[in-house]
Design goal:
The chain is mostly helical. Strand 1 and strand 2 form a beta hairpin. Helix 2 runs antiparallel to helix 3. The longest helix is centred in the middle third of the chain and has 44 residues.
């Protein structure tokens, strides 16, 4: 709009005043935006204060110490052993006890299973008895050899005096040779019987099935 006024003592002048509605709206918008931002900031600060006030913060302190760092590796798939050892028995029989199950840790020398040892104990006793008989036979034949040697010596002395014939001396010498051969045979038989006794004791020891190394049982094929 425009206004015209006459001022006394002066020449008429034209005073023009102009007001635009769009400029006023822009000014109001520039004022409201900062106010809205401040309100949002205040509301956010109030919310944070309310949340932090409900959940108190606790701090735990410990004394510094030296420990062991244990690394761990996680993997997927099937784990295969580096070394696989077959543990079995050299003898057969009835299983009495089984003390090592699948997926258990074992130590070297640990008893894992035991076979009924009574038949093998009987074999050991028999072998020991046979060995004792062979040793007794050796003692007997040694005594016979000593007696044959005395008879031969006496016959030689008598033959030198002319009391016995040379045939008697030869027979005595043959008896001594046979007795000596029998003693050697008995000694060889004792060695054989000793070997049989050792074998029987070894088989008796095999009735205890033990782990040869430290490891883990990956399979068990006995019940």
């Amino acid at each position: 709009m425009s206004m015209l006024s006459n001022v006394a003592g002066s020449s008429p002048q034209e005073v023009v005043s102009s007001t635009r509605p769009g400029a006023t709206s822009a000014k109001r918008g520039r004022v409201l935006v900062p106010l809205a931002v401040l309100v949002l900031i205040a509301l956010g600060a109030a919310y944070v204060r309310s949340r932090t006030g409900r959940v108190p913060v606790h701090y735990s302190t410990v004394a510094a110490s030296v420990g062991t760092v244990a690394p761990a590796v996680l993997s997927s798939g099937t784990v295969n052993p580096v070394t696989t050892i077959q543990v079995g028995s050299y003898v057969s029989g009835v299983i009495r006890t089984v003390s090592c199950d699948f997926n258990t840790r074992v130590k070297a020398g640990q008893l894992c299973a035991r076979i009924d040892a009574r038949p093998y104990e009987s074999m050991v006793e028999q072998a020991a008895a046979v060995l004792g008989t062979a040793q007794a036979q050796l003692d007997k034949d040694r005594a016979g050899l000593a007696n044959a040697q005395r008879i031969e010596s006496r016959n030689r002395t008598l033959a030198q005096r002319g009391f016995v014939s040379s045939e008697t001396v030869d027979a005595a010498a043959s008896t001594v040779a046979q007795a000596r051969a029998q003693v050697a045979l008995d000694q060889a038989d004792i060695v054989q019987r000793q070997a049989q006794l050792r074998a029987a004791r070894i088989n008796l020891g095999y009735t205890d099935i033990v782990s040869p190394v430290d490891g883990t049982v990956v399979s068990r094929n006995v019940t």
